[in-house]
Design a protein that fits this description.
By secondary structure, the chain is of the alpha/beta class. The chain has helices at residues 3-15, 26-29, 42-45, 51-56, 58-75, 82-93, 107-111, 137-147, 174-186, 204-211, 238-248; strands at residues 19-23, 98-101, 116-118, 121-128, 134-136, 161-165, 189-193, 215-219, 232-234. It folds into 2 domains: 1-33 and 80-120 and 172-249, TPP-binding domain (Rossmann fold, 3-Layer(aba) Sandwich), CATH 3.40.50; 34-77 and 125-165, SIR2/SIRT2 'Small Domain', CATH 3.30.1600.10.
């Protein structure tokens, strides 16, 4: 990576009072978690189970749990990569306000981040769609793999349990999205990392930041629709790029 570019971003990070990191699937590919949309990703291997189907049909719930159990195995043992660790270090040092993420893997929290807005929820928890109770995902996935039956809530009679993630046809959590929009509007620097920036409403957040006067740095392997809006676009390995910026600070 060009040292001058790393130094420039490090200077912007030092100057910023409300820096925000926004991350997408590319953030976690270096931890061995495939982008769900990429060839071989889970969305290319299974039929989509829509939220309304899940709620209405026991067969759809069983199919959903089969898909999620397969996907769970792909990230359950994954660990934060160098990029995650740099971002956690920045939050701990007060360089960034926090992280807005499209990812459901929980790796930012494992790395040490405390302020994380999960736009699409988390696959590390299970949520009852009827009473709102939450449970750790690991034992319930293990239960499904043993019984081949969708687990049921122990806290209420209906008990339709689903990963605490946003399914197709399900709205994003309003409170989280509202807080993410506020962070974006108040940001004076946004680093958009590992996101294709095509999935709305999440992809609107860097636009909100930029239109509110923030600098925008995009770090991604491939071009994005917002590249022309950015102050800097940096292609390459996310771990290497973030490490270079951190070392230049």
């Amino acid at each position: 990576m060009d040292n001058a570019i790393a130094t420039q971003v490090a200077e912007w990070l030092a100057e910023a009072e409300h820096a925000v990191v926004f991350t997408g699937a590319g953030m976690s590919t270096e931890s061995g978690i495939p982008d769900f949309r990429s060839p071989g990703g889970i969305w290319t291997r299974f039929r989509t189970v829509y939220y309304d189907e899940f709620m209405a049909s026991p067969d759809a719930r069983r199919e959903y749990w089969h898909q999620k159990a397969m996907g769970h195995r792909e990230f359950a043992d994954s660990q934060p990569n160098a990029g995650h660790l740099v971002i956690a270090k920045w939050e701990s040092a007060g360089n960034i306000r926090g992280v807005i993420t499209q990812n459901i893997d929980g790796l930012h929290q494992i790395a040490g981040n405390q302020q994380v807005l999960e736009l699409h929820g988390t696959a590390r928890q299970i949520e009852c769609q009827d009473c709102g109770a939450r449970f750790d995902a690991e034992p319930l996935v293990a239960q499904y793999l043993e019984t081949d039956e969708a687990p049921k809530c122990t806290e209420c009679p209906k008990g339709r349990l689903k990963h605490a993630t946003v399914s197709f046809g399900q709205s994003l959590p309003t409170a989280v999205l509202s807080k993410a929009a506020s962070w974006s509007q108040e940001a004076d620097l946004m680093l958009a990392i590992g996101s294709s920036l095509v999935v709305n409403p999440a992809a609107e957040l860097p636009v909100i930041a930029k239109r509110s006067g923030s600098r925008l740095v995009i770090i991604n392997r491939d071009p994005t629709p917002l590249d022309t809006m950015a102050d800097l676009v940096i292609p390459g390995s996310i771990g290497e790029v973030l490490t270079a910026i951190d070392q230049a600070g």
